[in-house]
Amino acid sequence: MKILVPVKRVIDYNVKVRVKPDGSGVDLVNVKMSMNPFDEIAVEEAVRLKEKGVASEVVVVSIGVKQASETLRTALAMGADRAILIEAGLGPDRDIEPLAVAKLLAEVAREEQPGLVVAGKQAIDNDMNATGQMLAALLGWAQATFASELAVEGDVATVTREVDGGLQTIKVMLPAIITVDLRLNEPRYASLPNIMKAKKKPLAEKTAADYGVDVTPRLTVVKTVEPASRKAGVKVGSVDELIAKLKDEAGVI
Questions:
Q1: Planar angle of CA 62, 8, 125, nearest 5 degrees
Q2: What is the pLDDT of residues 176-191, one digit of tens each?
């Protein structure tokens, strides 16, 4: 079975994001970029399934700018077999909308015929949490989102999902789309020998036009602003004082 894993190049989670002075977007000049953390977990899970003999090949795909090839090389160093880069040409500071990404991934899935697509539940730059669900709808495949446990036996995947009320375990027939949550696994670090080997692994470069998909944005960002700073908290000396502040100042009781 082949596993397809979409990965996205995002601002590193350790970096403090800065908004451009004109409010037109986020400043990406000299900003460290890395693989989306949820996608790292997806790559790790796919590689583990291959190590268990469940999968025969792991293919990673990224959609975006030319520099996303670096992100794909990281995935290859983690253990993926080959990579596909789809250049969209919107520029480094313009994100591709989830529907366009899902349409491109659907075309890749039809071409590659994977038995399973394992993706991060969301990207940390826009927190859309939509691409996996849209992809399942476009392909007409089963889906299981927010996976914290995954087991594949034959044509059935058993997924434990993290939901508001706790945990939910479901079974889906393959082919299926699985989106993963943080507690599924701990991604491995790519070793130096594997990083060197990754440079020799195949990385195909294509464009959105090759798949006949229009990635023109349907939404316009009017303005980007930083969140309002929180006011400093206060300490209270007693329960009575706390209740008085909640009632008279906060107005919540």
A1: 150
A2: 999 999 999 999 998 8
